[in-house]
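Worked example 3 (structure in, sequence out).
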């Protein structure tokens, strides 16, 4: 037996010190490595079959031709960067990555902050988050109808046209035009001007055609000849059409309807010197002292087609319109995550800032947003990865005529691999390019997670 001396040597009779840590052959949690491997094996097999193998196969396939039999090197990648459709897809993906995550995150932040101050905030969050329960396909169908050009079908244009018509008067008789063998001729911009000047005492009648009788205003009055008046140049504006035929051209026949509200102008040297509007019976009068010798003009505003709203799915607006549909879906996701982070913000810091005299905007900008920076980064990076893979919304919402203008990499991958003139070599090259674009964002996210763990 030994005992320990002051210098640390073991004295006879003292047992050896016990080993610290797990037993030999076990991990830090006391589990044998082969047991952990058995539990991880099914997940690793699935990961390899569904992720690793497709990535490796796509990488190899990108160096072969359309049928996969001939090695073409980097030709597929060169085609990706020279094909106009692929370049449009790259440009649109850049727009998506910059705009969609930023707008969704900003809206989510606004919603999360504002819903804290209202009594029915939970109900509001439920409504905003509800689109997340809808698939991308269903959301695409919904917004394909929302963006319909016809205001009678598309909600967006119905609202837009309603607002427009509130402040701008629309033409009463779109599509109307002077009848044949009249003195009125097209004068540019949709207007019509007479070939001979107005004369005092000579009627200046205006027979028009091109207005379906069924589209005349209900209760339209019958046209009547304008009575002559001293010092006036008078005339009648009417629809020169008799139901059932038999009417005489340029003559007001019984039953022919007046076109009330038509504006007529007297123009001299390109300047309007007098104007009037047709009354309910179609008659109008111009002062002879100003109109005599001038030309009669019907301005284009009388005949302009009704305003049909905005071509949301046209070449210039199709990408912003689809991004709007994406924001509608994912702003709720951003709001929920940011609201969860906001719940963990110490309230005493906000109150201290208010006590120090900071306004609500200063508290939001200098206290709330910096404290939420980690959460905002999570939301932003998650949405950036998500939009790089966007496919469903673009494929469903964009009509065939403008699908190439709304093209993105995931859609171009599908069209190149499985569309007409399919070339799976080019499709694989696009898949590799898409992977390379996602990898930097993933690395950024992983580094951020590691920094959070060190804290």
């Amino acid at each position: 037996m030994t005992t320990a001396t002051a210098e640390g040597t073991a004295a006879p009779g003292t047992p050896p010190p016990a080993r610290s840590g797990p037993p030999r052959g076990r991990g830090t949690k006391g589990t044998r490595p082969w047991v952990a491997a058995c539990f991880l094996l099914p997940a690793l097999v699935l990961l390899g079959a569904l992720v690793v193998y497709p990535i490796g196969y796509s990488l190899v396939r990108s160096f072969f031709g359309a049928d996969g039999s001939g090695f073409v090197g980097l030709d597929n990648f060169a085609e990706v960067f020279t094909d106009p459709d692929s370049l449009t897809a790259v440009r649109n993906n850049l727009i998506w990555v910059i705009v969609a995550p930023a707008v969704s995150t900003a809206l989510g932040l606004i919603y999360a902050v504002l819903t804290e101050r209202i009594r029915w905030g939970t109900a509001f969050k439920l409504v905003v988050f509800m689109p997340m329960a809808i698939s991308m396909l269903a959301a695409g169908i919904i917004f394909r109808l929302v963006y319909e050009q016809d205001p009678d079908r598309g909600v967006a244009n119905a609202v837009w046209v309603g607002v427009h018509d509130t402040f701008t008067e629309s033409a009463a008789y779109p599509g109307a035009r002077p009848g044949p063998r009249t003195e009125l001729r097209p004068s540019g911009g949709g207007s019509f001007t007479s070939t001979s000047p107005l004369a005092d005492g000579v009627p200046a009648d205006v027979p028009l055609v091109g207005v379906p009788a069924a589209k005349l205003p209900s209760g339209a009055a019958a046209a009547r000849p304008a009575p002559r008046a001293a010092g006036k140049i008078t005339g009648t504006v009417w629809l020169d059409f008799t139901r059932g035929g038999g009417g005489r051209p340029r003559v007001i026949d019984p039953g022919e309807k007046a076109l009330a509200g038509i504006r007529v102008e007297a123009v001299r040297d390109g300047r309007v010197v007098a104007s009037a509007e047709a009354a309910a019976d179609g008659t109008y009068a111009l002062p002879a002292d100003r109109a005599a010798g001038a030309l009669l003009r019907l301005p284009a505003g009388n005949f302009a087609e009704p305003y049909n709203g905005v071509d949301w799915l046209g070449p210039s607006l199709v990408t912003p319109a689809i991004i709007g549909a994406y924001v509608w879906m994912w702003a709720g996701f951003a709001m929920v995550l940011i609201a969860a982070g906001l719940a963990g913000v110490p309230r005493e810091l906000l109150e201290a800032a208010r006590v120090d005299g900071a306004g609500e905007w200063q508290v939001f900008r200098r206290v709330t947003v910096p404290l939420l920076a980690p959460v905002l980064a999570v939301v932003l990076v998650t949405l950036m990865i998500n939009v790089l893979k966007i496919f469903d919304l673009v494929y469903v919402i964009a009509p065939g005529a403008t699908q190439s203008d709304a093209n993105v990499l995931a859609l171009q991958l599908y069209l190149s691999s499985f569309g007409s003139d399919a070339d799976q070599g080019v499709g694989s090259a696009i898949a590799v390019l898409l992977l390379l674009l996602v990898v930097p964002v993933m690395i950024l996210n992983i580094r951020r997670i590691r920094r959070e763990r060190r804290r």
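Notes: The first strand starts at residue 177 and ends at 178. Residues 176 and 211 are 5 Å apart (CA to CA).
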